[in-house]
Amino acid sequence: MGSAGWRRLAVLGAAIGVAVLPLVVTNRFLLKIFTFVGLNVLVVTGLAVLLGYAGQISLGNAAFVGIGAYTCAYLTARMGLPWLVGFVAAGVLSALGGLLLALPSLRLKGHYLAMATLGFGELAFLAFVEGQRVTGGVNGFTGIPFPKIGAFVLKEPSALYWLVWAVTGAAILISANIVAMRPGRLMRALHGSQLGAQASGVDVVGIKIGAFVISALFAGLSGALYASVVGFISPSVFTLNASVAFVAMAVIGGTGSLTGPVIAAVLLTLLQYLGALVPGLSNEASQVVQSYQPDVYGLAIILVVLFAPGGVGALLKGRSKARSLS
Q: Exposed, middle or buried by CB within 10 Å (0-12, 13-18, 19+), for 177?
């Protein structure tokens, strides 16, 4: 079997595993943990397109998660609109925010672009804190209803898990098709050399804007799902630390890959809940791991840059090639 066949088999196995997990895991807290994993994978999938393929850095993705969360929460809890309306509106508004953020990227690159996106994230955080009439400010936004599709209210942990992973799976499938076709080739050309891409006739402006919009859209949908799953949101969730964690997952996952960032997002999210996942681990040890989580992210990025510049995705491709040659 060739490398492509092994990849398809691995993807099929992962999809089946994700689908049947609620039938095997009956612990409600563990199901919620794996639901949070799906939410982070959704954000990182969009960031993998933006950073890993188009080569555009963003330290403001937590802001788009917040925009999506507050949009869905306000429309459903305060205005009484159907959940699907709030969910779609969250994605649309976040995508518009991505379009707005893309404008500075047309003139900026490297650390200048990183600073611009960081500033956007901080401004959004201040808006979440100060906009008390809409967001609830530091006290948070309460009373967010569960997702309701038609006559079905999805409030059981298994139903919420399947909803989150259905959206995440669709996002991964859409992204895989985008990067496999002409837009993906143009993104890789832009990532390799912006001047070279321009000289070859690539619509650099359109590619940059499209990548930012996709990343913001997925982040906004993740925020809407998060608000509906948890039922409470506050500005403390949508901070710079969250944006840095998303970037760390994408960087550790590797450029030019969707599989690597997805795996990195799963592993680094589960790291936050080590105490619940590892039997016999003391609360003290779990708290130490959680308190040093940013340091773990930083150390992991350094190790990837030094020893595996292509990230997890490159390691997987290397093993795949070795298997096909053997």
A: exposed
Distances (CA, A) of 53 to 149, 207, 220: 34, 10, 20
pTM: 0.92
d(CA 250, CA 55): 11
Domain count, the chain: 1
> Residue 56's closest CA among 229, 217, 208, 247?
208
Mean pLDDT, contiguous 10-residue spans, the chain (326 residues): 68 88 90 96 96 90 96 96 96 95 79 87 94 91 93 92 96 94 90 84 88 96 97 94 91 87 92 77 72 77 78 66 48
Least Cα distance to 227 among 46, 162, 235 occurs for 235
Is residue 150 one of the residues assigned to a domain?
yes
Q: How far apart are CA 194 and CA 251, in angstroms?
A: 20
Cα 291 to the center of its chain, rounded Å: 22
Q: Which domain holds residue 45?
A: 30-240
